[in-house]
Amino acid sequence: MINIKLKSTAILLFIIVLIQACSSTKYIADYQSIVKKVTIDSVDKKFEEQAYNYVQKDLRPASKLSIQVPLYNLFNTKNGRYKTNDIKPFGTPPAILDSTLVEISRTQIQKFLKSKGYRQAEVTSAIKVANKKAEVTFSAKPGPAYFIDKLTDSIPNANIRNLYLSNKAGVSHLHKGMQYDEDSLTYEREQIYRIMKENGYFYFLRPYVNFDVYGAEPTSKTNKIDLNLNVTEPAEGHKQFNIGYTHMIIAPNPDGFPDSVRYKLSKDTVNGIIFTDFSKRYRRNPIVRYDFLKQGELYDIRNENLTYDRLYELNIFKNVKIDYFRRDSTSNRINTVIQLIPQKVMSNRIEGEVPFNGGTVGFNLSNTYTNNNIFRGAERFELQLKGGLQSRIGNGAKPFSDIYQRDFSISASITVPRLMIPFYNPNLGGNGMPHTTFSSSYIYALQKDVSVRRIFINSITYDWVETKSKLHSFTPLNFEYRFGYLDPNVDAETVLNNLYYSTLLGRKDLTLGMKYTYTLNANKLNEYRSFVYLRAGMDIAGNMLQGISKLGGKKSDPANNDPAKILGLPFNQYMRPEVDLRWYKHLGGDKQFIARLNAGVAYAYGNSVLTGIPFEKQFFAGGSSGVRAWQARTIGPGNYDRGLLRSDTLRRAFFGLDQLGTMRIETNLEYRFTVAKKFFGATLKGAAFVDAGNVWNLRKGESILVATPTLDEQTVFKLNRFVQQLAIGTGVGLRYDVQYFVFRFDVGLKLKDPQFTGSDQWVIGKFLSGAREFKNNYNATHGPDTYRFLQYNFGIGMPF
Predict the structure, then answer these.
(1) d(Cα 782, Cα 146) in Å, to the nearest integer?
(2) Residue 652 region, left (φ>0) first, then alpha (ψ -120 to 50), else beta?
(3) How many CB atoms are closer than 10 A to CB 36?
(4) Which of 203, 248, 300, 537 falls between 20 and 30 A from 608, CA-CA?
């Protein structure tokens, strides 16, 4: 059904384009023409794209692949002409020739070339019209490029001159011998302005910085230019200012500060800050903590921007405004006024769904309540209730007369905008807002005549930003209590046919551990530059409970199925390090190469030496962000081959079960490029990739998927079999980038499949010759599993 809908939509769009694409000329007057092509000749390649941006927008023709004009024609034409009123907001109108716009474009392109150092540049325009279709050509005669010969400066204020010279090497783009470029002058002016505003010169303005340009006249016989930098001095001179007191004022409600009402301002100054809250909703300390304009310190615009950022990140104010005033003209202190307008504090969201599935019907309902200021300190509280029922239908039974499954969960979390550490109060807001999150959840699931599950999870997590590129997340407490109960009356055949899930449903254990994750350069992932990205983490559990159990004096023998217990349940003990390392190499423009290595190990020991790693802590390979030629959780572990399960009953029992392991190694090589910058209103990007990897078990007996010693041996990692156990795939992909979202489609092709042996692993040969026979033989020996050479992946966002 989905494929039919997609095909129907595609056919409809194709028909619209086919009918409307070439019909725009019939909707315009006889004296008008539609611009089909704009060309700019004789412009240096590095400036072509920038020069085209100076062509007036209404003169630029739409891309040949775009449906924007056909859509506009469909909704905004009447009686064979374009409508002049009641314009529908669909698509964009065609570019209609306008000689005034042509002349404006010509002048702007010429000015642009002059600004880039071609001081003698001249641009002419030509228009060709045939059958109401126009082609506009801009021809440039750039002339010689001008280069900077001398650089001097005139800065009468000694302090400012010293400040500029001490920072010049790190910020200036100007140097002798470079091609003259007005953008470089603008950049220099902006850098000087920034330096002044960062060093106390509050009243410094950009117009104080200007340049004398000598020898740049188009009639000059030489192509040399001399530049002199001026920083002019106002009548009162340039002064540095310190911060006086700060008055922080919160409006009475989200409507702001009424002009008609006068409020009494507080006069109590604490640590240089006067805090007045007309709304009576907020405590002082959690808010003033993020005022970085400290009394007595030199004014620095970075602290102003930091104050803006953190107060907005508190997520309780919809508007933040910072003003300054001086008590008298002779003072070198400026006082700060921070006006805060609160936003709506509480919200509630209700969601529901009615799932149908093979003779069953049900409903799921959830309610999420959010309070962004529950303890008057910008603490975010979220409470979610979820519940659902599933009922069998058919044989004349009424819906919900035979309810076989009930689910209920309640979860709550409180996020505080600081690190709540006993006996320690670090101020880590300089590079990002720190958070402490307390979360708790309870899950109840009943499957009639099969099982009952109860899960209780609690955690405390600290998140903080060391620098903009270095992020930390530490969970010192992660407690999970899982109690499953299998109905003793459930028949053996049901257990066998649901072997994997029966094991999970009957699981009884608890986990007490901690986690730490370090991330480097996550802020650069959407930039075209060369850098290394790292995400490394450690998850460790059970050591504290092991110590407590030993102090209790009760003996245990985990290796002989007698683990130590806490609260009557065995506890998990393991360590799980994982690393994601990537190298992003910028190849110019929109081209990029990425090499990635993702590896992890989950090692059970002590109290879990026999029971092994919990299900949710194991690794899988494949999927849209792994080895993309395989569906997620369908590779390995190792050389695992279901064909060795000679029993149809066993193969059915293991069919569709997640193929997991206690160790993973995946690597990806991907080349990214742009296919079309204007494709249906967005950018179409492409990728070519090669992926390799697998999951393994560290020891025998760690996988529920095995039924024979041979299968068990195949799942274990051995260095001398590493290459034989690698899955390798390749493929291509498309990314539809609409700025806020990237819609991704990848096609992966299997090259080497580790479930086979020897040369048979290179299944690409079978794909190219004898694919049908190969698949038929595989289906006969591995059924109900089937074989696919190609894997399609859809997703939102980049794979990594």
Answers:
(1) 74
(2) alpha
(3) 19
(4) 537
CB 213 within 8 A of CB 188: no
Alpha carbons 520 and 534: distance in angstroms, whole number? 5
Identify which of 535, 526, 545, 516 has the alpha carbon closest to the alpha carbon of residue 598. Answer: 535
- In this structure, what are the phi and psi dihedrals at residue 558, rounded to the nearest 5 degrees? -55, -35
Euclidean distance between CA atoms 381 and 695, whole angstroms: 39
The token pair at 305 is: 């921007």
Among 568, 567, 564, 569, smallest CA distance to 551 is for 564
Distance, in Å, from the CA atom of 485 to the CA atom of 23, rounded to the nearest integer, reads: 69
The pLDDT tens digits of the residues spanning 442-478 come to 999 988 877 888 999 999 999 999 998 999 999 999 9
Residue 575 has pLDDT above 60, yes or no: yes
How far is residue 742's CA from residue 311's CA, in Å, rounded to a whole number? 30
**How many whole angstroms separate alpha carbon 420 and alpha carbon 428?**
12
| DSSP structure class, residue 26 | G
86: left (phi over 0), alpha (psi -120 to 50) or beta: left
DSSP class of residue 179 equals B
> What does the alpha-carbon distance between residue 684 and residue 668 come to, in Å, rounded to a whole number?
22
Q: Are 419 and 427 contacting, i.e. CB atoms less than 8 angstroms apart? A: no
What is the rounded CA–CA span in Å between residue 551 and residue 80? Answer: 91
Neighbouring C-beta atoms of residue 255, cutoff 10 Å: 9
752-756: list long-range contacts, CB under 8 Å, 24+ apart: 752/726, 752/727, 752/728, 753/727, 754/635, 754/636, 754/638, 754/639, 754/694, 754/724, 754/725, 754/726, 754/727, 755/639, 755/640, 755/641, 755/642, 755/643, 756/641
Q: Mind giving me the DSSP string for 603-671?
A: EE-GGGTTT-S-GGGSB---STTS-TTS-TT-S-STT--GGG---HHHHHHHTT----BSEEEEEEEEE
The pTM for the full model equals 0.81
The structure tokens listed for 452 are: 């009952």
| Cα separation, 689 vs 732, whole angstroms | 6
CB count in 10 Å sphere of residue 164: 22
Cα gap 174→517, rounded to integer Å:
42
The residue length of the chain stands at: 800
Q: Are 342 and 312 in contact (CB under 8 A)?
A: no
Residue 501 has pLDDT above 90, yes or no: no
Compute how many other C-beta atoms are within 10 angstroms of the C-beta atom of residue 464: 20
- As a whole number, mean pLDDT of residues 696-714 equals 80
Per residue in 729-760, pLDDT tens? 999 999 998 877 899 999 999 999 999 999 99
For residue 532, which amino acid is it? V
Percent of the chain with pLDDT over 70: 92
The DSSP output letter for 86 is: S
Strands (E), 25-113: 34-41, 77-78, 81-82
595-604: string of b/e by CB count within 10 Å (b at 16+)? ebebbbbbbb
- CB within 8 A of 665, min separation 6: which ones? 597, 598, 599, 693, 694
Q: Which residues pair with 325 in a beta bridge?
A: 335
- Whether 404 and 448 have beta carbons less than 8 Å apart is answered as yes
pLDDT of 493 > 70? The answer is no
Calpha distance 608→731 (Å, rounded) = 40
Q: Which residue type sits at 444? A: Y
Residue pair 62/17 in contact by the 8 Å Cβ criterion: no
Please count the CA atoms within 13 angstroms of the CA of 414 that sit on its side-chain side: 12
For 108-164, the DSSP string reads HHHHHHHHTT-TT-EEEEEEEEETTEEEEEEEEE--PPPEEEEEEEE---HHHHHHH
